[in-house]
Design goal:
The protein is of the alpha/beta class. The protein folds into four domains: 173 residues, Rossmann fold; 175 residues, Rossmann fold (3-Layer(aba) Sandwich); 154 residues, no CATH class; 108 residues, no CATH class. It has 25 helices and 21 strands. The strands form three sheets. The protein has an eight-stranded mixed beta sheet, sandwiched between helices. A hairpin with a 2-residue loop joins strand 3 and strand 4. Helix 15 runs antiparallel to helix 16. The radius of gyration is 27 Å and the shape is globular. The structure holds one DNA strand of 9 nucleotides.
Length: 700
DNA sequence: GAGCACTGC
């Protein structure tokens, strides 16, 4: 601890914090900023007037850093030093130093907007620019203005452009603290490889044969490429003459790997053995592998982006930024001097790569964040002019307002409604919180709680990619899982949880049915949390117990589908007349299809329901609706009428010159106009699919 | 008839 670089700057830091409300601290990896900054300020009396809060973008980081600081101060974790993450608050009235995720701090600021328990707020890892950190940056900027001058804010980051943040905070001082990284030699390719899998393979084997010991970390974009490269590496390593070089062991590393497979990279390798770790960007920030000396960087990353005009997400392979490239290279210099092989030329890095990764706030739907900001009732802050470090596009904000309007969270003037206020209490995306509120009025809250919890855990729920022998969750005739009774995926998710619930949460049930235990337990936790919040909100006692209940009835399903229709008013699609393609009602009307993994069933003529709601639009090989539920026309009609009356200009609080498209209204009200142009190709493909479906049905 | 970068309240 004594040799951490940051401690040499202790006096300088304290002196600067004393004189300024906001200080930016740029500290490279290994500087000790996450563990030492709080202790330095504690030593100099900053915990006398309040608690020091340090935010982290990730739960594991909040817990592990808190644990280390408690150790260094020789106190019991949860007393003087504690942490707070979702589902787990390990703090007490004694706590002076509190580590928490930035999401938890945002929740706290809902009930205590001044955050006046805190004498100091440290926003750590701000360079990652998570959505929550970006919103906190705007909020603390305001707090600095309105709270007493002894309130201090520190923004710390590894590579963040210090000048930009300093400018954002009216020219506050920037301190640089050196890190403890060893030098990393950067080697560039002469040109972009045709296949970066082949190219990585060649470079990795070259290193293995020629270079001294040290592990190799290879950055790929996704599971598919990782698996391909792993098997090629295994083959190649086997073919090397025995005794010609040291042994090798090859690990894949990505998010959908079960935890026990992920932690293998933390156990030390056998002696005289080199490890190859083939990873996604999970190894860029979330997981740090010791012993890496060589990094191979493909220069690509897979990133999810949101298109506010179509409401559609896509998962694209894109070029990384300079910041990311340097973060990857830094992974080679943690234990001793290393080398980074970039599979792209210097000119590409210099001229083509963006300086920094596009912040999340510019890549995601903002409905939740805008509702959050509206619920804070900041009299001096106009949402559309909220002070963001990097502002989202006006199109994106406009989209968020429209979404909130259709689900009654804001009125036609853009003011938050009673429903919107209740929604903001719930840690859910707006469509789901709206569904819960409707279900509460509707008499199907228990079912809705389950579905909403299942949906918010969906990605952790799915079984690891099915091998041909594995049972698939959906559309498999021999699967034991319920099928949604024809109504679609939401009902199936409800039935799945109810089945597990009836076994008294038996782990073997999960295994037998191909569900991930970890994901199902998370659903249970989310459900319990939502239950408590709903109990608090409602005055009446709620019927929300799931355990020991009989299965839901068709009548329950009907109520639930109706609540889903209200909550997903933005996400309704209408089937085309002659085939099973759908067009979306809100957003620019577009042709989409039900995702093939859906359990939604067709009628005897092979036709799907006339109206469905969907949880998400995702463009992969084609635009798909994922998680689809059948709804009825009479439920959709009032929503359609509401859409026709939409006036975007009013929503955003009067004429706003930044909005370029006030004509949006006419565009949206054309719902009853002719079907949008569809290329013949798509039409005929859908027609062919329907014929195949009918043929299969006839065979049975 | 297709597909899952990574977080988080």
């Amino acid at each position: 601890m004594a040799n951490l670089p940051i401690l040499q700057f202790e006096e300088k830091i304290v002196e600067t914090v004393e004189k300024n409300s906001v200080v930016v601290i740029i500290g490279e990896t290994g500087s000790g900023k996450s563990t030492q900054l709080s202790q330095i300020l504690h030593r100099h009396g900053y915990t006398k007037s309040g608690v020091i809060a340090i935010t982290q973008p990730r739960r594991v980081a909040a817990v592990s850093v808190a644990r280390r600081v408690a150790q260094e101060l020789d106190v019991t974790l949860g007393e003087d030093v504690g942490y707070a993450i979702r589902f787990e608050d390990r703090t007490s009235s004694k706590t002076r130093i509190k580590y928490l995720t930035d999401g938890v701090l945002l929740r706290e600021s809902l009930s205590n907007p001044m955050l006046d328990d805190y004498s100091v707020i440290i926003l750590d890892e701000a360079h990652e620019r998570s959505l929550n950190t970006d919103i906190l940056l705007g909020l603390v900027k305001r707090l600095v203005r309105i709270r007493a001058s002894n309130f201090k804010v520190l923004i710390t980051s590894a590579t963040l452009d210090g000048e930009k943040v300093s400018e954002f905070f009216s020219g506050c001082p920037v301190l640089n603290v050196p890190g403890k990284l060893y030098p990393v030699e950067i080697l560039y390719s002469k040109e972009r490889p045709v296949s970066y899998i082949e190219s990585s393979l060649k470079v990795a084997i070259d290193i293995h044969v020629r270079e001294p010991e040290g592990d190799i970390l290879i950055f790929m974009t996704g599971q598919d490429d990782i698996e391909k490269l792993v098997s090629k590496l295994e083959e190649k390593v086997r073919s090397l003459a025995e005794g010609s070089c040291m042994d090798a062991i090859i690990y894949p590393l990505h998010g959908s790997l079960p935890p026990e497979m992920q932690v293998r990279v933390f156990s030390p390798p056998p002696p005289n053995c080199r490890r190859f770790i083939v990873a996604t960007n999970i190894a860029e920030t979330s997981l740090t592998v010791d012993g890496v000396v060589y990094v191979i960087d493909s220069g690509y990353v897979k990133q999810r982006q949101y298109n506010p005009s179509s409401g559609m997400y896509s998962l694209d392979v894109i070029q990384i930024s300079k910041v990311q490239a340097n973060q990857r290279a830094g992974r080679a210099g943690r234990t001793r001097p290393g080398k980074c092989y970039r599979l792209y030329p210097l000119a590409v890095y210099r001229d083509d790569f963006l300086d920094a990764t596009i912040p999340e706030i510019q890549r995601t739907s903002l409905a939740g964040s805008v509702l959050y900001l509206k619920s804070l009732d900041l009299p001096d802050i106009d949402i559309l002019k909220f002070d963001f470090l990097d502002a989202p596009s006006s199109e994106s904000l406009e989209d968020a307002l429209k979404q909130l309007y259709f689900i009654d969270a804001i009125d036609e003037n853009g003011a938050i409604t009673r429903i919107g206020r209740t929604m903001s209490e719930l840690p859910l995306e707006p469509s789901l919180s709206r569904t819960l509120i409707e279900a509460n009025e509707n008499g199907c809250l228990s079912q809705a709680l389950t579905v909403v919890a299942m949906l918010s855990a969906e990605t952790t729920l799915l079984p690891t990619r099915s091998k041909p022998s594995d049972k698939k969750r959906k559309h498999d005739d021999d699967s034991n899982l319920p099928n949604g009774s024809g109504f679609g995926d939401h009902i199936q998710l409800l039935q799945i949880f109810e089945s597990w619930d009836r076994t008294n949460y038996d782990p073997t049930w999960c295994k037998e049915n191909g569900m991930q235990m970890r994901g199902m337990v998370f659903v249970k936790d989310v459900r319990r949390q939502l239950c408590q919040i709903m109990q608090k909100i409602s005055k009446d006692r709620l019927e929300v117990g799931a355990h020991g209940r009989k299965s839901s009835s068709r009548d329950d399903y009907r109520k639930l589908r109706k609540a889903l229709c209200v909550g997903n008013a933005n996400q309704i699609a209408e089937r085309m007349l002659r085939h099973n393609g759908y067009r979306t009602l809100s957003f620019q009307s577009q042709l989409v299809q039900v995702h093939p993994s859906s359990v939604l069933s067709a009628d005897n003529d092979g036709m799907l329901p006339n109206y469905v709601v969907y949880h998400e639009l995702i463009s992969t090989t084609r635009p798909f609706m994922r998680n689809v539920c059948a709804v009825e026309m009479s439920w959709v009609a009032p929503i359609k009428r509401k859409m026709e009356k939409l006036n975007v200009r009013k929503l955003s609080g009067g004429p706003a010159p930044s909005f370029k498209k006030p004509e949006e209204k006419t565009e949206l009200s054309k719902n009853d106009a002719e079907t949008p142009a569809v290329s013949e190709n798509v039409e005929s493909r859908i027609e062919a699919a329907r014929e195949r479906f009918l043929a299969r049905k006839g065979q049975k």
